[in-house]
Amino acid sequence: MSATVGAVGVLDLQGGVQEHLDHLQRIGVTGRPVKRAVELAGLAGLIIPGGESTCLARLLTIFGLRAAIEQAYDKGLNLWGTCAGAILLARENVGEASFLGLIDIAVNRNAFGSQLDSFHCTALAPAVAREPLPLTFIRAPKIVRIGAGVRALLSLDDYVAAAEDARILVTVFHPELTPSLAFHRYFAHKCGLNVAEADDADLDPGWTPHSWTRFSPHA
Ligand code: GLN
Hints:
Structural class: alpha/beta
Shape: globular
Largest sheet: 7 strands, mixed
CATH architecture: 3-Layer(aba) Sandwich
CATH topology: Rossmann fold
Distance between the termini: 13 Å
Helix content: 10-25%
Order of helices and strands: EHEEHHEHEEEEEEEEH
Bound molecules: glutamine
Low-confidence stretches: none
CATH class: Alpha Beta
Number of domains: 1
Radius of gyration: 16 Å
Number of strands: 12
């Protein structure tokens, strides 16, 4: 496949892929599903979606994408991990082995409890949007430590929910499962892409709670 310069890839092995591609489209950014190492060529950024981090780690290894992502990152690729993706990017995974270990944070998996303890809330992330954002946590980890080169973008109770270093963004919640486009716009800016400024709320009026449950093949 030829490179699409300026595109953002979404790792397409398992988890919430189409929802991220839909949000990228809503902000006018070319999104590209990435199943194979060759598909990383020319990307400005890569989103590692939520799903199940153990499963994703196994698939990344089996398909040779672990080394390919590390190499692409060394060459300048920006990364965003949502939930399971953040777990894979973390340098420390409390009580378990870390995987890519590219950002100096510690995460505690499933720190809120079981899938039934998933929840929504609203909070302000001042660096990302002027209005409070709707947040969806699905059996999320907590970020329990951030290193010196890491900035917290959203802190709640006893944990950090979103953080970044120079080229990596991590969120333990799922912006792609809400009408909010703010974090996708923030990541696009971080990737150096030219995206339009949003209005204060930056919510897609066409989004419905069911829009992300439709099946939309992209092979
Ligand atoms: N609980 C999952 C894990 O530990 C993450 C859940 C998610 O990505 N929403 O991998």
